Amino acid sequence: MNILHICDYAAAYRGNFIESLEVLNQKLNETGSKIVYAFPQRIENREDHWYEKLAEHSPVYVYGTSFFDKIKSFKKIINEQEIDIVHTHFTNNETDLCVKIACGSKSIIKVKNYESRYGVSGIKKKIAAKLIYKNWHAIGVSKSVDEEISKFNPFLSHRFINNAVFFKRLDSFEPIDKKSVFPEDNSINCFMLAYDYRLKGADIALEAISQLRQKYNIYIMISVPSNLEKIKEQIINQFGEIPNWVRLVPPRNDIAAYYDISDIFLSASRREGFCYAIVEAAYCKNTVIASDCEGQLCHAQKNLDILWFENENSRSLSEAIQKAINLLDNDELKEKNKALAAQNYNIDAWANSVIEAYKDFENNF
Fold this sequence. Notes:
365 residues, alpha/beta, seven-stranded parallel beta sheet, six-stranded parallel beta sheet
């Protein structure tokens, strides 16, 4: 099998997404199959051309921006690499339509990965989606996402394969001088990720921590992969300034360095498809707090022993943080969550499930 992975992904680092695909690629190589990568043109603007390193062992392409450029790019890849399966990630309906057109009448299996909760609303959109995704297969990354596919895209053949984490990338990192981020000794240090201020619930987290500042010496570090200036503006709109207890830091591939200097990890998302970070943080022995949005609750509630708060409720989050503070010295709980993360989000099991799905798609094509 030659599988083309079209990834609308142009992050500053490889992250868990690429590391997971690399594990899948290695397993496919063992059976004589291979992955071909395709990334959007904007990835060329990144200072670190990490995607070029993939070309040392796999074909890597950059596809065009316009509708017709995408079709042209996909056709070229399909013909040059004799593609059997096209698997899309983070792509919108337009890009998937380009895939459909590029495949033409060829006997190519088409698979769409749903990494987030996604619905097709409106009659026109539903008709368009039905036309685009006729004879496609879908993989939902969590039970919540899979249920949403059933609800909004019932014409899609779909299955649920729970996402996993490549834990090896968390086992080594370049240490950070803790004082460079958290200047005070004995402070309580929280950490969260937020490229979207509202979606990731940064406003909720900051409101909860501002309430607790009267009682605790507490800080929050926010890793901002993109939209930094916009997020600064949103913090100022909320507080009139960027409070000195808020630390904004850039993204880094060795994210374990951030977990290493943190006590509590917060995922205050209003909506999620899966959320790698709560699993990573548990593995790195942070005390983890998550909103009870469906995309997190559906997998982590049974797989990890973490704290929950009512979605969009800053007071509920404040209460959860106070509980977390009382658990900071509970090494037994931290070790338990590290073991649970490794056991329940195994990357090899995930890769084997994806390969099994490919085989089923082929057999039923």
